[in-house]
Amino acid sequence: MTDIQITRYDTTFKKEWDDFVSNSKNATFLLKRGYMDYHSDRFPDHSLIFTRAGKIFALLPASARDKALVSHPGLTYGGLITNSKATVAEVLEAFFQLKQYLRLNGFLSFIYKPVPYIYHTMPADEDLYALFRIGAVLHSRSVSSTIDQNNRTKFRNIRKAGIRKAVKAGLIIEETSDFAPFWQILNTNLTDRYGVRAVHSLDEIKLLASRFPEEIKLFVAKKENKTLAGMLVYATKNVAHSQYIAASPEGKESGALDLIVDNLVNNVYKHLAFFDFGISTENGGNYLNENLIYQKEGFGGRAVCYDSYELTVASSHGSSIS
């Protein structure tokens, strides 16, 4: 009989959760409660804590949606959080226990979004093997564009030309805590192009930035004190990730985004292993935005996949979600 126990998270575990995330080998600040819980009204929490001999062995950030457990619908990735002590056999055992938990608690499916390898501080693919063993299958595959700072590809000429144009126009790059001008540009672009707004409201991103000031930073390109473009960066132990990037018509014409990327990749975040531009796919990866990914690849970004897996759970009669 296994000695791994599964307990549903509640707020009394907040400090233990965050401490474990801080010392894990594959988690980022997005999986701390201060980030996860900002949208708990939209994504009811059903995170799980795995313990062995009374000590935390692993964590699973998750939310319940209908009869599905999703890890995590409000985040780019969720995944099983482990530390350097976790072995393949132990993680496999944890997933077998998880499968039983899902069945006993009335879940009919499980959607799992592992943390991409670029965020790992050491190899941490034990969960991918365990997914195979419990019968999970690939559900979606999105493609991001990532620069490996230790194995760089040169910027394309079109991107270099944009940088020269921005310098000639007198644009300057600065970090700012004034999110409003950039958020207006961002939402205008998203509304005009796709009929949507940014996932985060202005108030939400200001709240998150106040909670994680070293990790969440906004960089803008300005001319005569007017914001023309910007990039919101999420910085983790290994990765600088472009969470949002946008430019006004004047900013696009003047090469503002090219100048921002050049500054961040070659100066501000050159010490991190990877610079990730984010995904260029939609509809679970079934549509590739070729214009968008062409721009990212022009800076030397190459493909990293953001996957999700699905497990169909055999029903257990008479049980319900706890």
Task: Summarize the structure in words.
This protein has helices at 14-22, 33-36, 88-104, 126-134, 157-168, 180-194, 202-211, 249-253, 256-268, 290-297, and strands at residues 4-8, 48-52, 55-60, 63-65, 68-71, 109-112, 137-148, 172-176, 216-223, 226-235, 239-247, 274-279, 281-282, 287-288, 302-312. It has 322 residues and is an alpha+beta fold. The two termini are 23 Å apart.
Quick gist of this model?
The protein has 322 residues and is α+β, with helices and mostly antiparallel strands. The protein has 10 helices and 15 strands. It has a 10-stranded mixed beta sheet. Strands 1-2-3 form a 3-stranded antiparallel beta sheet, with helices on both faces.
Please tell me how large the radius of gyration is: 21 Å
Detail the poorly predicted runs: 316-322
Q: Which bin fits the share of residues in helices? A: 25-40%
Distance between the termini: 23 Å
Q: What's the total count of β strands?
A: 15
Averaging pLDDT over every residue, what do you get?
95
Quaternary state reads single chain
**Strand order, sheet with most strands:** 4-5-6-15-7-12-11-10-9-8
Overall body shape: elongated
Biggest sheet descriptor? 10 strands, mixed
What amount of the residues lies in strands?
A: 25-35%
The number of helical elements comes to: 10
